[in-house]
Design a protein that fits this description.
It holds the Pfam family Glyoxalase. This is VOC family protein. InterPro entries: Glyas_Bleomycin-R_OHBP_Dase (IPR029068), Glyas_Fos-R_dOase_dom (IPR004360), VOC_core (IPR037523). By secondary structure, the protein is α/β, with parallel strands linked by helices. Helix content is about 25%, strand content about 30%. The chain is globular. The strands form two sheets. Strands 1-4-3-2 form a four-stranded mixed sheet, covered by helices on one side. Strands 5-8-7-6 form a four-stranded mixed sheet, covered by helices on one side. It has helices at about 15-25, 65-80, 90-100, and strands at about 5-10, 30-35, 40-45, 55, 85-90, 105-110, 120-125, 130-135.
């Protein structure tokens, strides 16, 4: 039995800012853009990888989330402690340079980590931590990107 990651969800507090980051700065394709206002959800993903998507949605947009929980989520987003994702690329320096040039909030410049990977970290416009790992010797994900 094999599993793949199909969707993952990250909150956004401004859909246009989220699009500018994920589509324009990262180069992801828009897979779906549905709803409006407080219910707008946008699915994005790497070009050519139609089986995987990041769904950007308003905080607490799912049913059953209370107003108190929405406030807590918004507070955590403002501090940058609510959500995170790790992406992988074969050219970390180019990705970092592109993100910095487009105004991404830099958390960590590209660096070799003691656990054997080279990565960097930025925050998206909603405060979500986006770590980017370089695919190479010793890095998880070897062979996952087209060569």
């Amino acid at each position: 039995m094999e599993f793949i990651v199909q969707w993952t969800f990250l909150p956004h507090d401004d859909p246009d800012d989220a699009l500018a980051f994920y589509r324009d700065a990262l180069g992801f394709e828009v897979r779906a853009d549905v709803g409006s206002g407080a219910r707008r959800r946008i699915a994005v993903g790497p070009p050519g990888r139609t089986g995987t998507a990041i769904v950007l949605e308003p905080p607490g947009a799912t049913h059953g989330v209370t107003d108190d929980e929405r406030r807590t989520i918004a507070e955590m987003m403002a501090k940058g402690t609510y959500a995170r994702i790790t992406l992988a690329t074969d050219d970390l320096d180019a990705a970092f340079t592109r993100l910095r040039a487009r105004g991404a909030e830099v958390v960590q410049e590209p660096a070799e980590q003691p656990y054997g990977v080279r990565d960097c970290a930025v925050r998206d416009p909603a405060g979500n931590l986006v770590r980017i790992t370089e695919i190479g010797a010793g890095a998880p994900g070897i062979g996952l990107l087209p060569g």
